[in-house]
Design brief:
423 residues; alpha+beta; five-stranded mixed β-barrel; five-stranded mixed beta sheet; 31% helix; globular
């Protein structure tokens, strides 16, 4: 992509009501646009980051046997009334509306915009699960959720409209469920490692509510985190403050003096749901012995936008964004200094060569001062910068720099390729 063709631009201004570091930087760099508190548009650069995050998650979900689908955001009241979660005093983040009817505008049945999909998917699978032979099954989706949050001041880390990956497991019994659940712990840790957050993300014991003794969160350490966790570095686990007590410590085989208190943000979670939803919504199967039993369920969530915001909070410096290679919108930015024919030809040639090798390139071909281009390159946060100027052309070299270091190297074309590809 040539920056002269990119309709977004960097900016020094941010909305006056924006307080979060992640949103401020993403707005300045032209990755997102703020519509209102808790609602953001993902612009071309931001959309590429989200898509890269989604790609990593999707690959892991498919590898573990997940089947992707796409469900409606509009939710009829019936399924939620059956589960007991339709009324606002039970779930207080609903966005609700009404259908039109013959009686007048918005006078028809009440609808909700989905904030999660346990009810909808449980009801759907009544059409497909009849026998133990139909189990287990692991459907998942990437879908926009809507939650009417009272406060939404953490940028893209807590939104009223946001993308969620939600996978649901349907098993014949707890034993079958537990095998998959344990596997998903490993899968999630692998996902966060690929996303660049592996060193700061901990499998965290949290409340299991009415379903089980524990649920498991994946908490990434950051100063802006909303949660307090207690970390055991040796065992690479953590305990959420909500369940931090002597009984839990004893059960996990840890002591208080081995733990370190940190602030963290929940970037993923997994829950055992048992048979709560299947019993209330009538999702049953016939077992080998001919008896009818409720399906045993679990749910597994990751918010790609929250992950993106956490990456910004964790890696960004005083110059701007810093993206891990796997999620960066482009892997390298070419900064062309000058409009001399030989400089333009050299920059155009390198752009074509890198693109032909399958390397995603952002080419700064704008007519701007060098200082402005360098500042924008730092703000955008791509992993590598290659500068082409009269000086580099005369030397038949390229000025190469990683975003995370101050070291500048003069390299030939083959060396530039090796530096980029080896990462």
């Amino acid at each position: 992509m040539k920056m002269s063709q990119l309709f977004t631009k960097t900016s020094k201004d941010v909305p006056s009501d924006e307080v979060s570091k992640n949103a401020k930087l993403l707005i300045k760099a032209g990755y997102i646009h703020k519509e209102m508190a808790g609602v953001y548009d993902y612009l071309p650069l931001g959309n590429r980051v989200i898509n890269n995050i989604v790609k990593i998650i999707r690959e892991e979900m498919n590898a573990v046997g997940g089947q992707e689908l796409s469900m409606s955001a509009l939710q009829p009241a019936k399924n939620w009334e059956n589960s007991g979660r339709w009324h606002d005093d039970v779930i207080d983040v609903w966005f609700k509306t009404r259908m039109h009817s013959g009686e007048g505008f918005h006078m028809g049945p009440e609808l909700g915009l989905g904030n999660t999909h346990e009810e909808a998917l449980t009801a759907l699978l009544r059409n497909f699960i009849q026998s133990y032979k139909d189990l287990p099954v692991y459907p998942y989706q990437f879908q926009t959720k809507f939650r009417n949050e009272l406060r939404s001041k953490s940028g893209i880390m807590r939104c009223r409209e946001f993308l969620m990956k939600d996978l649901y497991s349907f098993s014949k019994d707890q034993a079958q469920h537990d095998v998959f659940y344990e596997k998903m712990k490993e899968v999630y840790l692998r996902i966060f490692s690929k996303l660049g957050l592996g060193d700061v993300t901990y499998l965290t014991f949290a409340s299991g509510g009415s379903f089980s003794k524990f649920s498991h969160e994946f908490q990434a350490v950051t100063d802006v985190g909303e949660d307090t966790i207690y970390i055991h570095e040796g065992k690479q686990l953590a305990i959420n403050k909500e369940v931090y007590n002597d009984d839990v410590l004893h059960g996990l085989g840890v002591s208080k003096d081995e733990l370190v208190e940190k602030r963290a943000v929940e970037v993923g979670n997994i829950f055992s749901l048992g048979t709560k939803f299947s019993e209330k919504l009538g999702l049953t199967y016939t077992d080998e012995d001919g008896t009818t039993k409720p399906v045993y369920m679990g749910c597994y969530g990751i918010g790609p936008g929250r992950v993106m915001g956490t990456i910004v909070e964790h890696f960004a410096d005083d110059k701007g964004l810093i993206w891990p290679d796997n999620v960066a919108p482009y892997k390298v930015t070419i900064v062309r200094l000058g409009n001399e024919d030989k400089v333009v030809k050299a920059a155009d040639k390198l752009y074509g060569q890198l693109s032909n090798k399958g390397i995603d390139v952002l080419y700064d071909d704008r007519d701007m001062r060098p200082g402005e281009k360098f500042a924008d390159a730092d703000l955008l946060g791509l992993p590598y910068r290659v500068v082409i100027s009269e000086k580099t052309v005369d030397q038949e070299k390229f000025e190469f720099k990683s975003r995370t270091t101050d070291k500048v190297e003069m390299l030939d074309f083959d060396s530039v390729i090796k530096m980029i590809v080896k990462s």
